[in-house]
Please model this.
Amino acid sequence: DQQVKQNSPSLSVQEGRISILNCDYTNSMFDYFLWYKKYPAEGPTFLISISSIKDKNEDGRFTVFLNKSAKHLSLHIVPSQPGDSAVYFCAARDSGGSARQLTFGSGTQLTVLP
Amino acid sequence: ETGVTQSPTHLIKTRGQQVTLRCSSQSGHNTVSWYQQALGQGPQFIFQYYREEENGRGNFPPRFSGLQFPNYSSELNVNALELDDSALYLCASSWGQGRTYEQYFGPGTRLTVT
Model:
């Protein structure tokens, strides 16, 4: 039962263009959504997040959009740079329970071509 | 500020053996979460420790156990290793019992079970 899904295992984008990574979820108890970036041989690095009460959050080149009715979120990177090439994980925090653990999607490998 | 560190980096064990993985949390963080990341998958929550007590657990059997020490460092123990336990084990630290959604990850320990 995958509660967080990233249906695109990979994405290639030309340098300078927009990268759009997508994520779908099923659990209505999720109250925060996060994006993590992971380089090989490193742990995931927090990138940007959004509360379930908002529909957009922006931080420099990174913008996350949340559509609660569709249970869908997306990460936009503009402009894309070769250094953005990494695996991107969408994660959601469960508002129930004391641990508030994160549930991750399976990741999307972004390749930005120079 | 010291980041999250994990040891060892790599480990090879035989089926049926026991293993202990270690994690030092980021300075100022009192909560540690452990995740298992199988090849091609996102991290999956194992359990969380807050103030030396298990604070929540994912869908993992009791042979996965842990400890947290007074300095907030943590251990993950796995008994009776199975081939499917081969994965990257990630430790993440944060501050507060479920009050923060930003978790900071270490580089992980790659466990191979033969």
Remarks:
- Residues 32 and 72 of chain A are 13 Å apart (CA to CA).
- Chain A has no helices and eleven strands.
